[in-house]
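tool_call: predict_structure(chain=1)
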Amino acid sequence: MTFEEKCTWVSLIAVLAVYGAYFSALLVDLGSAPAADIEYQQDMFITVAALVAIMVAGIVLVTIVSRGDDSSDERDKAIGRLGAVAGGTVITVGALCAIAMAMMLVEHFWIANGLLLALVLSEVANAATRLVLYRGGVVPW
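tool_result:
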């Protein structure tokens, strides 16, 4: 397993765990109060900060375990590009949905959490694409 693939696994697991916890707590809050009454901003900020900290720590750990072998080749670069395209497509659709929600005067709660969900799905699409390509190979164009 290459260094880049290990980092992709770290990112995917961190995103799923951290945002899974955030959205689970949010669903509990939605079950007990209307969306307009939920104070989500601080929890969202803490969630994003926690994700950054966990990903940095995870990549540092992968680097230490890999003994500094963080080399990448053309295959890694091609896989990274294709993953970025998949993630970029998802985040673009999510941003367009958020713009539509804003134009329809949807509550800020839904717009902010919709954007966050789009970001999460974008990261998952990026990582999933990369992992599939690492296992199946990159098709030459």
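agent: The first helix runs from residue 3 to 32. Proceeding to next step.
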